[in-house]
Write a structure and sequence with these properties.
It is a single chain. This protein has seven helices and six strands. Strands 2-1-3-6-5-4 form a six-stranded mixed beta sheet, sandwiched between helices. A hairpin with a 2-residue loop joins strand 5 and strand 6. The chain starts with a strand and ends in a 20-residue tail after the last helix.
Length: about 180
């Protein structure tokens, strides 16, 4: 079965139309470049805040999104409550995603230690939080996406194939 991806940009200014959303298009461009199997992609822009994030994620999980990429709101600023909203929805945290995204990002900027990126599952959805800058989004997705297709398999979500020249998806060999 083909997969559905939802991209959620978390930004007060972008949700009010005062700021051009760059994170959402950055996520979509990256997915379209790497994923070779059929993938429906939808984008949403919501304001910052724990409840706005949790509410949108609950809606997307209930609606059957296989992969949910959340961009923005993962820093230490007072309105950065994306991780708190995600934690209200996630059933199983996948700490390795955040660790690996920060490790990869630290090779580029020392402020990567301020990131609170994470990932986890809710129902048959994999939720990954990302920074808002397209180049940082690419750094993070390049660091973790090899594990995403198999994670989706394990939780019963839609099937994703990748272009092995860009990201070689890992799936264990059948015995």
């Amino acid at each position: 079965m083909s997969a559905r991806a939802a991209i959620v940009t978390v930004s007060d200014r972008a949700s009010r139309g005062e700021y051009e959303d760059k994170g959402g298009p950055g996520c979509e461009d990256w997915l379209r470049e790497v994923v070779t199997s059929p993938l429906a992609i939808e984008r949403h822009i919501i304001p910052d805040g724990r409840e706005s994030v949790a509410s949108k994620l609950r809606e997307l999980v209930a609606d059957g999104a296989d992969l949910i990429l959340v961009t923005g709101g993962t820093g230490p600023a007072p309105r950065d409550e994306t991780p708190e909203g995600v934690s209200d929805v996630v059933e199983k945290e996948l700490a390795g995603f955040g660790e690996e995204m920060r490790r990869a990002s630290l090779l580029e900027v020392p402020t990567a230690i301020l990131s609170r990126q994470s990932a986890g599952t809710a129902g048959k959805s994999l939720i990954i939080t990302l920074p808002g800058k397209p180049s940082a989004i690419a750094t993070c997705l390049n660091a973790v996406f090899a594990a995403v297709p198999y994670c989706l398999d394990l939780i019963g979500a839609g099937w994703i194939e990748t272009d092995p020249a860009k990201i070689k998806a890992f799936r264990p060999k059948a015995k």
